[in-house]
Each structure stands twice: as structure tokens, then as C-alpha cells.
Amino acid sequence: MKLDILMVGVGGQGTVLSSNIVCDVALAAGYDVKKSEIHGMAQRGGSVVTHIRIGEKVFAPTIPLKSADILVSFERMEFLRYSEYYSDNMTLIQNTQIISPPSVADGEAQYPQDKIDAVQKSLKKVIEVDAIGKAIELGNQKIAGMVVLGILAKNVPFEKSAWEQAIRDRVPPKTIDLNLKAFETGYNI
Questions:
Q1: Which of 93, 85, 77, 80 is nearest to 144 (CA)?
Q2: 13: three-class secondary structure by DSSP
Q3: Using an 8 Å Cβ cutoff, are 38 and 6 in contact?
Q4: What does the DSSP assignment read for the chain?
Q5: Which of 39, 83, 133, 158 gives the lowest tally of CB atoms within 10 Å of its CB?
Q6: Confidence tier at 150 by pLDDT (50, 70, 90)
Q7: What is the reported pLDDT for 45?
Q8: CATH class of 2-187
Q9: Rounded distance, CA 154 to CA 141, Å?
């Protein structure tokens, strides 16, 4: 098995936590895993990207160009920044939440909805979710990333119980039940 997952988002959306959970799940299943992350100004709302490579033996932590199997975008347009990684068979899992970059918030630029629509049409499979809306329904918008993670889990060949255990191991103890509910919500979409 070979699986290359690119996870992208904006600081504070749970991209790094989610990527750590993916790695834990793959390692528990006996696979070699390499991960690379870049989150420079993430604490100030900047871009975050994590490469996750899973296989029998993985030699490099970054996904080769045009090779991503799955791209998980925690923010609606963030996936557009990484088009060089799109493969012909790539699945896009996309949260519909919009976090406007400063140029859009200041009125200097427009949010690229037309480009988002055009690129989505060119991809093999797109799964969209209003993860922030689902998280708010569950009582806490901070768990939106777990909704997205649940969708990813449903689309990769790892046992659901391994995901649940990895979540228990990674989130603060007082938030385990809520995070598991969010994961279950995403898993059932």
C-alpha cells in the first residue's frame, strides 16, 4: 500500500493535530510513515501544510509533485495553493469554512470562488462538508477539524477503532467525548 495525504489549512484549525492522528493510525497498522509540516505564521492565521506519506517503506517525508492521493483542505480555498501536488486520481476533502486572507478582508482582492468551482470540477472526487456548522451543532466550533478527520477516516483503509484510540491518545482528556462525537459525525457523512 502507498498513500500520500496532503493536509492544508489555516493556523488554529487542527491541521497539525489531525496529521498527528493520521500518523498514529498508520503506525498502529504497521506501516512506515513519514511526515513533514510547515506552519510558519500559523499562530497568526497563516497557512499550514502537512505532508503524510504511508507505505510499506517510505524514503522521503514530502509528497512528490502530482502525486497526492488525498488532499484535505480545512479551509475552503486553501487547497488552491497546492495545485502542483494534484494527481489524476486525487480525492479532495474540503471544509466549506471561509477564513479570508488579509488581502480579501481589506478589500484589495476578492475571494476566488470561481477558481474554486473550476478546480473542483476538474478533480476525480470532491467531498465537501460544513464542518464548522456540524461542530457548532455539537456545541463547540473548535472540533470542526475532527469532523473533517472523520471523513478522511471513512475514505482510507484503516480500522475505525484505531482512529478512535488515536484521538483518545492525542486530545486533552476532558475533550475526548466531544472530539469522538465530532469524528463520528464526519465518519457518517
A1: 93
A2: coil
A3: no
A4: -EEEEEEEEETTSSHHHHHHHHHHHHHHTT-EEEEEEE-TTGGGT-EEEEEEEEESS---SSPPTT-EEEEEESSTTGGGGGGGGEEEEEEEEEE------HHHHTTSS---HHHHHHHHHHSSEEEEE-HHHHHHHHT-GGGHHHHHHHHHHHTSSS-HHHHHHHHHHHS-GGGHHHHHHHHHHHHT-
A5: 83
A6: very high
A7: 65
A8: alpha beta
A9: 21
